[in-house]
Design brief:
Radius of gyration: 23 Å
Helix content: 25-40%
Strand content: 15-25%
Strand order of the largest sheet: 9-10-11-12-13
Number of strands: 13
Largest sheet: 5 strands, mixed
Length: 402
């Protein structure tokens, strides 16, 4: 099969469109618009770090300026049209996908049990039955609630470590669901009390499960290796994704040759949906303005794809010792149109009402002249209001002398 040639520019536009970054950022959500956006993306990663605003809120705000955190909370905690669980990391996921996750729970339960035994010891297993009974009778609990339960043996029947492990295990295997969050701490309840009845319809069998996982991932990726297809949802193995792609080559799956942003880098051969050429032709140019992306944004999460398509070398330095960081603890990539133009270190001081801009690093060869500075000022003022701040304060050396 002759690979379909795809330029880096075509690949960038397609990826940004599939990930919701090609639409007008100022258009208000219509009814169900936020749920449609997340369904189109597949999920939105949830993270606790709040240097400006938490990752899930930043991801959605970067796609639509009218987004506010209460909108996602409503879908998760009132409408129940989304649920919280794991993809490659903790994520908010449309509830229409929950039957697939129920298959995932069954598929992974034995391996997860063994993993928890290795990590935490076997004590948690004795806690699972009593914990389910407790929640069934008394209602939702948080991990810290277990600390206050009376001891029933010298070690403490409600051992904190074992109790929390049991709680997480029951959530990871589907017995419990996250009913809400209190100050970002998960509150757990029985899954059937949290999620609507339709979430418990027929779960796909083995072949249908693999087909859904691979087909839906490739649709959202636009193109990818077997590893990238498997890693999108983290539902199947790379071997299963590779076997699926090869079995569907021809009518449903093709091979594409994706050029790199750097002309000296060789093209990558990737799997793609058979309709890729038509999808590329129908993809519009993304808006020309500046956007600050979360470090956990799906458009930048896969570092190898990011380097290949955008020529942008990025990593999160949260877990890097301060003295060894190249940029900063939590740095936001800056997207302009279909290219990455820099990265910025900023934090929200809500007590002072100030968004503090510490440093901006333009990409090599790019200047932040008057026009781009004006666009950046507008962006930062909007982010300041989104983060419940009133003003933007710039460090003296925030923009390097170019």
């Amino acid at each position: 099969m002759t690979p379909l040639p795809v330029s880096a520019a075509q690949g960038r536009r397609l990826v940004l469109d599939l990930q919701g970054l090609a639409g007008p950022p100022h258009r208000r959500f219509e009814d169900g618009g936020l749920l449609k956006l997340v369904t189109r993306m597949g999920f939105v990663q949830v993270d606790s770090i709040r240097t400006v605003e938490r990752a899930h809120h930043t991801i959605l705000y970067s796609r639509n300026r009218t987004y506010r955190p209460a909108m996602l909370d409503r879908l998760l905690e009132r409408d129940r049209s989304m649920f919280e669980h794991w993809t490659h990391d903790a994520s908010a996921i449309p509830t229409t996908f929950y039957p697939v996750w129920r298959r995932k729970f069954r598929r992974e339960a034995a391996a997860l049990r063994q993993k928890y035994r290795r990590w935490h010891g076997p004590d948690f297993e004795a806690e699972t039955g009593p914990l389910l009974d407790l929640i069934g009778k008394n209602g939702p609990v948080r991990a810290r609630d277990l600390e206050r339960r009376p001891a029933r043996n010298p070690r403490g029947w409600w051992d904190w470590h074992a109790g929390k492990t049991a709680l997480e295990f029951l959530w990871r295997t589907g017995e419990l669901a996250v009913a809400r969050r209190d100050n970002f701490q998960k509150v757990y309840d029985l899954s059937r009390r949290v999620l609507p009845p339709e979430a418990f319809g027929d779960a796909p069998d083995g072949p249908a499960f693999i087909d859904w996982a691979c087909r839906s991932a490739l649709d959202r990726l636009g193109f990818g290796t077997a590893g990238e297809i498997a890693g999108y949802w983290n539902l199947v193995t790379t071997q299963e994704a590779g076997a699926w792609a090869k079995a569907h080559l021809g009518a449903e799956v093709i091979v594409a040759s994706l050029d790199a942003a750097d002309p000296d880098v060789r093209p990558r051969k990737l799997y793609a949906p058979a309709g890729l050429e038509a999808r590329i032709a129908a993809t519009a140019e993304p808006p020309a303005g500046l956007r600050a992306l979360s470090p956990f944004d799906p458009a930048v999460r896969d570092r190898k794809r990011l380097r290949h398509l955008f020529g942008f070398d990025f990593r999160i330095e949260v877990f890097v010792a301060e003295a060894q960081r190249q940029y900063g603890y939590y740095v936001f990539p800056l997207l302009e149109g279909d290219r990455m133009v820099g990265r910025i270190d900023m934090t929200a001081d809500r007590a002072a009402g100030t968004l503090n801009v510490r440093k901006l690093w333009p990409e090599p060869g790019l200047r932040f002249g008057a026009g781009r500075r004006q666009a950046l000022d507008g962006l930062l003022n909007r982010i300041s209001r989104f983060a419940d701040c009133r003003d933007v304060a710039y460090a003296d050396d925030w923009l390097p002398d170019l």
